[in-house]
Design a protein that fits this description.
alpha/beta; 6 strands; 6-stranded mixed β-sheet; single chain
């Protein structure tokens, strides 16, 4: 039996360009989007290029969310609109005190489980480099 492999340089270049463009789209997504003040629910989300291995973790949190899934219900469609897919890795709460420049990460999500707060804190430190940021497994 004879197998024929056909290679189209143009198709390969187009495919590589699409992957680079998707990776660029991923890089443009902010690592952190949280409310400027207060105590609120947050989720840790892994965003990735569809059918690819490139991904990044992002933190999203807001007082307007009664439940953690309300945050994910906004993040998911926004990422899909960019051609990306996402998965919630867990959640918790954030206490953000902008006057004292302090953030505390704690708790867990009933629906998604506890996020890896150490990962969330590293993301927060990149966005709030002049803050004191701590985490614990405390429920409150």
């Amino acid at each position: 039996m004879l197998a024929v492999v056909c290679r189209h340089p143009t198709s390969v270049r187009t495919f590589r360009k699409a992957i680079v463009t998707m990776a660029d789209a991923l890089a443009k997504i902010p690592d952190v989007e949280i409310d400027p003040e207060g105590t609120f629910k947050y989720i840790l989300v892994r965003v990735k290029v569809k059918d690819g291995d490139v991904n990044k973790d992002i933190v999203r949190g807001t007082k307007s969310a009664e439940y953690h899934n309300h945050i994910f219900e906004k993040v998911g469609p926004a990422m899909e609109a960019l051609g990306l897919e996402c998965k919630c890795l867990g959640g918790g709460k954030i206490e953000h005190n902008s006057k004292e420049k302090k953030i505390r990460v704690f708790g867990e999500s009933t629906g998604f489980g506890k996020a890896d707060h150490s990962v969330s804190v590293e993301k927060l430190k990149s966005a709030f480099s002049n803050y004191e940021i701590t985490w614990s497994d405390d429920k409150k």
